[in-house]
Amino acid sequence: MAALFFGAATPISKPLLNQLTTFHLAGLLYLGAAGGVFILLLREGKLLLPWQMDRQNAFRLVGAILFGGVFGPLALLWGLQQASAASVSMWLNLEMVATAVLGHFFFKDYLTPRSWLAAGGVFLAAGVLAVGDGIAGIQAGILVALACICWGIDNHLTALIDGLTPAQSTFWKGLVAGSTNLVIGASLVPLSAPIMSILSGLAVGVVSYGLSIVFYITAAQHLGATRSQLIFSSAPFLGVFISIVFLREPFTPVQGLASILFIISMLVLFREQHQHHHEHFDCHHEHLHCHDDRHHLHSHPDHPESLRHSHHHCHEATAHTHPHLPDLHHRHEHA
Fold first, then answer.
1. Which of 49, 79, 127, 207 has minimal Cβ neighbours within 10 Å of its Cβ?
2. How far is CA 277 from CA 162, 218, 332, in A?
3. CA-CA-CA-CA torsion sign (106, 232, 171, 85)
4. CA distance readout (Å), 107 to 8, 31, 141
5. What contacts 39, CB < 8 A, 6 or more positions away?
6. CA–CA separation, 13 vs 26, rounded Å?
C-alpha cells in the first residue's frame, strides 16, 4: 500500500511544478502528510514530544527529518523539472540500492548474496534509464540519486526509532520538514500559486506521503529497512503507468528493458531465506507490535494475538533459531 500511494506522487507532482517552486511543493507535500496522519494521532490518544525522547532516538528523528523531509524531496523535484515523470519514477528504484548499501555497511541490515544480486539488478536498470535519456537524463539521474541516498539514510534512521509510533514519526517529519521548505520557498519567491494548486499539493501529501510513510514505517520496523525498501521499489511502476496514461508520455524500449530487469530482480529477492541461531539480550522499549511472533510473550487479555498495538514492554534474554529479518529485534552480527 505504501508503494501504491507513493508511486502516484511523481506523475501527479509534475504538472504542479508549473505553478509551484520546488521549495513550495516540497513544503506542501510534507505539511499535507502531517495533516493526513493527525486523525491517526487522535485515535492513538497520545503525542510524544521530540524533547521527551531519549537522546539517541531524538537524534534519529532529527536525522530522518533533515534527510527524508528536507534534502530528499528538494533533490527529487529538481530532477523532476529536467526529465520525464516516467523516467524519474523508474530512477526512484535507486532508493532501494542506497538503502541496501547503507544498511549493510552502517546499520546492521545485512544482505545475503541473493539480496546483493537483486540490488545489482535494480542498479543496472536505473543505469540503463539514465543513459537512454542523454545528458539531461544523466543530470536528472544524479539529482534523483542524491534524493535516494537521503531517503536511504532516512529509511534506516526511521526504522530504528524506538518509542514513537509510525503516525507520530510521520507527523513530526511532515510538520517540521514541510514548514522549513515552505518558509524557505516563500522567502525566495512569494507563494502566489492558484488555490487549487496549493490544495492539490496538500492532497497529494496526505495520501502519497502521509499514509504512505505510515505504512512504510510499520513495514520497516518488522521487515527491516532494506527488505521493506526492496518491496517498496514496486512504486515506480505505478508512476510510469500514470505518466503514460494521464500525462501522455511515451513508453520507450529503454524503459521496457529497465522494467524487465527490475521484475527479474524482485523475483530473485522474494526467494530469499535467512535463518540461524542467535541471541537476544534483555531490553525495555516501546514500538508497534503484536503477539503472534516469538518475541512478545507478555499477556494482554483484552488484545487478540494478531492485533497490532504500541506500549512500553520488556524482553527477557533468550537464544533460539527461527527464520527472521533485520527488524527491531534482529540487528545482530552474523556470518
1. 49
2. 25, 26, 11
3. positive
4. 29, 29, 26
5. none
6. 10
Dihedral sign from CA coordinates of 8, 9, 10, 15: positive
Q: Tell the burial category of 276 from Cβ atoms under 10 Å away from its Cβ (0-12, 13-18, 19+).
A: exposed
Is the four-CA dihedral 313, 316, 320, 325 of positive or negative sign? positive
This prediction has a pTM of: 0.69
With 0-12 / 13-18 / 19 or more C-beta atoms within 10 angstroms meaning exposed / middle / buried, residue 63 is middle
Q: State how far the alpha carbon of 67 is from the alpha carbons of 60, 146, 157, 164, 244, in Å.
A: 11, 10, 10, 18, 30
Alpha carbon distance 96, 262 (integer Å): 11
With cut-offs at 50, 70 and 90, classify the pLDDT of residue 332.
very low
Among candidate residues 209, 220, 182, the one with its CA nearest the CA of residue 34: 209
What residues contact 232, with CB distance under 8 A and at least 6 apart?
Answer: 2, 3, 6, 95, 96, 216, 219
What cell does 135 get? Answer: 545528458
The 10s digit of each residue's pLDDT in 46-91 is 777 777 788 888 899 999 999 988 999 899 988 888 888 877 877 7
pLDDT at 324 over 70: no
One-letter amino acid identity for 70?
V
**Rounded Cα distance, 56 and 45, in Å:** 24
Rounded mean pLDDT, 10-18:
88
Q: What's the CA gap between 60 and 171, in Å, rounded?
A: 15
228: number of Cβ within 10 Å: 27
Cα separation, 300 vs 277, whole angstroms: 28
What is the rounded distance in angstroms from the CA atom of residue 207 to the CA atom of residue 248? 23
pLDDT band at residue 327, thresholds of 50, 70 and 90? Answer: low
pLDDT digits (tens, 9 = 90+) for 269-302: 766 555 555 465 566 655 555 665 555 566 665 6
**Alpha-carbon radius of gyration of the chain:** 20
Section 100-118 average pLDDT: 77
